[in-house]
TrEMBL record, chain A:
Pfam families cross-referenced by the UniProt entry: SBP_bac_3
UniProt record, GO biological process: amino acid transport
Protein species of origin: Muricoccus nepalensis
Domain Solute-binding protein family 3/N-terminal: 57-286
Protein family: Belongs to the bacterial solute-binding protein 3 family.
Superkingdom, natural source: Bacteria
Protein name: Amino acid ABC transporter substrate-binding protein
Record keywords, A-Z: Signal, Transport
Organismal lineage: Bacteria, Pseudomonadati, Pseudomonadota, Alphaproteobacteria, Acetobacterales
UniProtKB/TrEMBL annotation, chain B:
GO BP terms in the entry: amino acid transport
Protein name per the record: Amino acid ABC transporter permease
Gene3D superfamilies: MetI-like
GO molecular function: transmembrane transporter activity
NCBIfam families: HEQRo_perm_3TM
Subcellular location field: Cell inner membrane; Cell membrane
Sorted UniProt keywords: Amino-acid transport, Cell membrane, Membrane, Transmembrane, Transmembrane helix, Transport
Membrane topology listed for this record: Multi-pass membrane protein
Homology family: Belongs to the binding-protein-dependent transport system permease family. HisMQ subfamily.
Origin species: Muricoccus nepalensis
Annotated TM spans: 30-49, 103-121, 189-208, 229-249, 269-288, 370-391
Segments forming domain ABC transmembrane type-1: 97-388
Amino acid sequence: MSFREIEMTLQPLRRATIGVLGAVAMTALGVLPAAAQAPAPAPAGASILDAIKARGTLVCGTNTGLAGFAQPDSQGVWRGFDVEYCRALAAAIFNDPNKVRYVPTTAQSRFTALQSGEVDILARNTTWTLSRDTSLGLDFAAVNFFDGQGFMVKASAGVKTAKELSGATICVQPGTTTEQNLTDWARANNVQFTPVVIERLEELVSAYASNRCDAFTTDVSGLAATRASQPNPAEHLILPDVISKEPLGPLIRHGDQRLVDLVRWTHYALVAAEELGVNQANVAQMAASDTRPEVQRMLGKNGGLGQMLGVSNDWVVNVIKATGNYGEIFARHLQPIGIQRGPNALWTTPGGQQYAMPFR
Amino acid sequence: MSQSATDPRQFRAPPKKPLRLSWADERVRAIFWQVLIVGIVIAVVWWLVRNTQHNLEVRRIATGFGFLNREAGLPIGEALIEYTPASTYFRALTVGVLNTLKVAVVGIILATILGTLVGIARLSKNWLLAKVAAVYVEVIRDIPLLLQLLFWYTLLQGLPGPRQALNPVTGVFLSNRGLKLPFLDWEVGHSWGLMAFVVGCCGLYLFAKAMRRRQMQDGQPRPIWPAAIGFLIGLPALAWWLGGAPVGIEWPALRGFNFQGGMSVSPEYFALLVGLTTYTAGFIAEIVRAGILAVAQGQWEAAQALGLRPGVVLRQIVLPQALRVIVPPMTSQFLNLTKNSSLAVAIGYQDIVSIANTTLNQTGQAIEGIAIIMLVYLTISLSISLFMNWYNSRIALVER
């Protein structure tokens, strides 16, 4: 068959293809300018809270696995301090703490996941800083854990304070405030160090464990969690130096003040419940019989506070039934791995900083 | 039927017809469709850009490249140029690009050498050698690269700590902190020698070209190795001697936690380099084998019958024909190796992806960060492609 003959046979086929392509192109051309004129109602402009309610589940960004804060158990169920905040919020919105889908995020991917709407809320031991609050377009709701950065070394290294680490190799996670605090601290104290920067926490900890690094640095709570998960915790020493302030808390993206309010007041509800002696066991009975006015307002007997937040008036009862109060959450997840209340005790105890705004 | 295709009269250009503004005119239709398609592409791009801008504004996320001049504050373990955490993001990203190039260039060279050796070994008449090469290729090709990188990295972490470092030769220390080698205590004389070496390479190239021209005229082959020794060894040595003949050597020594001084190769770089090299060499070996097998046995026999020595047969007869098959797929392998180097993030080698990721995380400007990564890889890949296409056209057989 000659070239020309092939050409002849293909002719009708080509016409048909052009016809179809043309039709598609015409449609696209007609639709596109209209779409461009009015960019679809931006998801950020609409209420994220309404979107969560319509979807029926809360999508919660968590750590990929940090003992005590967020880690799947042997059944694959997520457990931990941060996870309880997701459960509490789901209980407030849906009266069902299990309507949560967990999305593990790395230190580097977490903000992009939140900005792009892949997750509704980030409860992932994240430090509240000015630039994150502004130029990253995020809103921190509350501080649920006051932390600070420290160092962990092998007990056999004989190091007693952080300043003795000059010349050391230090393992650090990229994209964290930890990384920047470390360089700030090293410059201020004239400490030379070689960084080993690995994104996945598991790989980083294994590099530290196998002696690739002399020290591992992160928030003290994270150090305690890591130390607890080592085969022999006694081999590791957390140095007394705390080189930064790390206020950790849940956050959402800019654009929905109602959701910020709800997350913030869920945290205050957990703290206030501890202040007022309301816990998982007695919450139902307290709601029915406690006569203190603030308890009655908080647990929805009167005042209509829940409605003001856009949820049912007995939302705090649902939250406390699901997770217990702040002290119970802390005792359940963090005290077993050796983290003391310290600054996270109630403000009524000396040194405590957890303080709930009035339910009024 | 086939005569009609070869008949030159069939291919005479048709007479030019004036352009009629009608659907019946093929050229009018062609222009219409092209304008339409370009229009659609522009509209889609415009819509995407506008949509992105709008959403960034709504979420009040910062935009623009202003952050490049801000202080980075991120620690970088190994840098080819001076870097401190007080440097700017721009400098940090430059360090990342250089780190990517460092592993890509060295990786490409080593993978080509290793791959060629394995490819030839697989064709060897030695049964054991051929089978070992075959097993190497099959094993390496069938395991995901990420796993191989983690394997090498874990293996290196199994080395003893710096205090118990292996010390096979005086001054060479191998520990889980990397390989430490003694290195020249760099002085001006070394720089002179290095410059003289570069000049010598250029000189040797020109000299070889001139000799080749003379050979073309009178048919006499002229050895160039005496000149090569002069250009590549004599000239740098002379420059080094004129520069004061420095002989100082910096020895690595254990001070505090780590070795100080000398030259060091970090475990991260080494694991990445070994992983990329061995993985890509598996593919290159097959390409080389295919290239050699593509040259018909008759070519060898004919050349030998003419009395040419085996080396000359390989260089002048077989390789030019084999390279025609080898070079185009080789380009793809070089591009793969370069792009695979982005797996460095998994084992903590700070290449451009790792540093740009941290940058976009700290500044929150994901779109700019990803754009920078894309631009860097596009530039490197296009450069490799252009160079290989140039090389391909240079070595291509002149076909008549």
